[in-house]
Design brief:
Elements: E1 2-6, E2 14-17, E3 28-36, H1 39-46, E4 56-57, E5 61-69, H2 74-79, E6 87-90, H3 100-103, E7 127-130, E8 136-138, H4 144-147, H5 155-163, E9 173-177, H6 181-190, E10 200-205, H7 208-216, E11 221-224, H8 228-235, E12 239-244, H9 249-258, E13 259-267, E14 287-290, H10 296-307, E15 315-319, H11 323-331, E16 338-342
Amino acid sequence: MLAVRLRGPCEALTLEDVPLPEPAGTQVRIRVAGCGVCHTDLHVVDGVQARVVLPRTLGHEVAGRVDAVGPDAAGPLRRARLKLGDAVVVAGGWGCGACDDCLAGEEQRCGQSTAPGFQVDGGYAEAMLVPHPRHLVGLRDLDPVEAAPLADAGITPYRAVRRARPWLDGERRVLIIGCGALGQFTLQYLRMGRARSALRIAVRELEPARLERAAELGADYGLLDGDPEMTIEALGGAADVVFDVVGTDVTLAHAAAVVAPDGLVMLVGEAGGRLPFGFETTPIEAWLTTVAWGSRDDLRDVVRIARRGRLRWDVERMPLRDAAKAHARLRRRKVNGRFVLVP
């Protein structure tokens, strides 16, 4: 089968003919229908992403069809109400299955977790192995190519907004830094439900076209870059919540400068940024936290919302062999939604 692999940090992606993997034990083989191209993939190529084992087939945003199962996977597959040929999206963050986090369904927090495209081979390929059926969520009538971005761009903002709920009740001020795929999902989740109409939401971006998209999705204000004073003025005060879906030193510094006392900075993007922590660097009693992918239940919720037609996202399909071209365009920010590689 064909796979796009990275041999070492900063090396070129290579299209290789590799053996079709055979599932053993509880493993499930997925015939990849589509794999999203994420900024984190660029961080892997650049050698700045933590916990990556190379050489590796990239790709962690995967959807496809159940193709084959190991001898111990048939029962768990039935209990998951799945069968051969079903369309599925793959939940990343595969834990040990026995620790407290895993037993609570939060495998992405497991200290021994592995993830496709990072420590094991991922979805830039015609097929991939998933260690257990519990990592699969059925898509039913959703197109698996279109649904691939739900595995990360869809689920991570969902978890971020869910974790930020205590700061989102009533007339609150919210800033989203970045409005690519993750930012657009973040904005839509914030606007779901009656109470969300009371939120005052600003989006800070570098691309005018993305600000236009943000306005379509419900943003009250669009900020083309700008200093912290401009952000605070647009919101009518300091932000109760800042979702940084970029994650550079610059965006984190902006988040810390505009967040209110007792406000929340939720770091979503993994661009490797750092923020000094201390009494002089953040407002008093402000909260700083990260979000790690999402749980299986989070992914089920996201698929359910998508199936109801309550989410909008853009997909540009590209052939698997054009993965390097997709990376080059992503670096130049020449995409408004998500590239999805199609074998």
